[in-house]
């Protein structure tokens, strides 16, 4: 996965909404006393702290491909390291791997999952969460705008197939795990503030646009996108906006034998 710039502060603007799926994922991991726990794609490290609290006797490793995120995690006291998930393999003694809202950025991840599961020791747990909303208006409108004459060819964006359906993840993980738990949840998130959906996607989905365009062009792109998002996600009478967000979860537990 190519490392591109992230804005940790912007990403954390919606910390509560972004953290809840991680907590829901972690609740389904039944490891009791793992030797090593890996946060694969740790971001600014705010959720890595939950892993350390859950398993205080484990060695907790935090990895991310973004230098900005690694720096932010280290500022929190998390011993984060720079690593690309495409090249990563679990080392001996890795009993838990958690990767949260990361693999949607890695086109090859369906090929990586069986390889990781095979390399993990008996009894290990693997847990992943990816957004399942790449076909939603919040993302479709970005792709539509990027395809218009002014922006065409300026930026490469993910399509809907960047994330697979739950049944596909079940099949991929079941090849190397005794128990597989896959589910999806749509969170109906209440956002507030001016153009809140635009602010949300600015921290994630618009990152490739920001990286590809000059600052002035990026602001022009956002200005064109804003009214389209307001039309797709109109505010409520109290000024807040409901933002449905579908997420896909999978937890695999390898046999003890």
Automatic annotation (TrEMBL):
It comes from the Bacteria. Keywords: Cytoplasm, Methyltransferase, S-adenosyl-L-methionine, Transferase. SUPFAM superfamilies: S-adenosyl-L-methionine-dependent methyltransferases. It catalyses: trans-aconitate + S-adenosyl-L-methionine = (E)-3-(methoxycarbonyl)pent-2-enedioate + S-adenosyl-L-homocysteine. Its EC number is 2.1.1.144. It is found in: Cytoplasm. InterPro entries: SAM-dependent_MTases_sf, Trans-aconitate_MeTrfase, Trans_acon_MeTrfase_C. The keyword Thylakoid does not apply. Belongs to the methyltransferase superfamily. Tam family. HAMAP family: Tran_acon_Me_trans. Catalyzes the S-adenosylmethionine monomethyl esterification of trans-aconitate. This is Trans-aconitate 2-methyltransferase. It comes from Pseudonocardia adelaidensis. The lineage of its organism: Bacteria, Bacillati, Actinomycetota, Actinomycetes, Pseudonocardiales. The gene is tam.
